Amino acid sequence: MLLDLYSYARTCRHACSLWTWNPRKGKNFECISKAAAAGGITTIVDMPLSEPSSVTFEAIENKKKVASSQTVVDYALYSGIIPSHIEDIKDTFDAGAQSYKVFMCRCSNYSMLSDGLLLKGMKHVASLGGMVCVHAENDTLIQQLVEDFQLEGRNDAQAFLDSHQEYSELEAVKRFIFLASLVPNCKAHICHLSIASGAQALKEARSRGIVNVTAETCHSLPRSRRGGFFTYWGVCKMRSTHQDKGK
User: Fold this and answer.
1) In 105-208, alpha helices (H)
2) 129-179 pLDDT, tens per residue?
């Protein structure tokens, strides 16, 4: 079995371009599942960053209906935890979503979550036996650099890279590990970890008995480096270095 854990499908009839970055204008299940099958992938797991976001029972049921009629491979669905939808967690879990995506920083069309609501959501998901998966970056550290660069007139690709510093991710990783330690029965996961120091923080947490946190990286992240701008949709974390690759 080969899984793609990061698919972003629209619940529309007509397949769109595979190359668009925008989830509101992206490809449908038929398009991405055929592409997955062509690459040998047997299961796609669709993120909740659709429009509307897959954070309600109705949205999950609608996505299941569309996916079932379009996919040529197996599929699974994320739901998510966003403000004003904490109470929808059980309904979406009962509808079939087992993992819940959270952004610890702002995203183009998906609300970030405060630490208080993240902890509350983790407790709720833990009681159901689900998993909380986070995009771990510190929003205020990033946005301060964004504002500074904008004042300098910088809006180039390098400015984007420079606004996403290693310390912004490391702080969020350590903060999420701490929150996970408060809910030891919650399966907690860090998506697309891009820094070696974050992996070291996880290793140190395990040595302290915090064993409910996992992480993964993506093939595109170890390839990215200063002086090169490798993009892949949805992950605004592009700072891995050659030193990180060896760790």
Assistant:
1) 115-128, 139-151, 157-163, 166-182, 196-207
2) 999 999 999 999 999 999 999 999 999 988 988 999 999 999 999 999 999
Residue that is written with structure tokens 């919650």 in the block = 186
Cβ atoms of 230 and 241 closer than 8 Å: no
Calculate the alpha carbon distances from 179 to 52, 65, 114, 163 in Å: 28, 35, 12, 25
Identity at 81, one-letter amino acid code: I
In angstroms, rounded to a whole number, what is the distance separating the alpha carbons of residues 89 and 96?
11
Q: Please state, in angstroms and as integers, the Cα–Cα distance from residue 77 to each residue in 62, 74, 157, following that order.
A: 11, 11, 32
Are 123 and 88 a contacting pair, CB within 8 Å? no
Measured CA to CA, the distance from residue 102 to residue 110 in angstroms comes to 9
Q: Rounded to two decimals, what is the model's pTM? A: 0.86
Give me 177's structure tokens: 């590990």
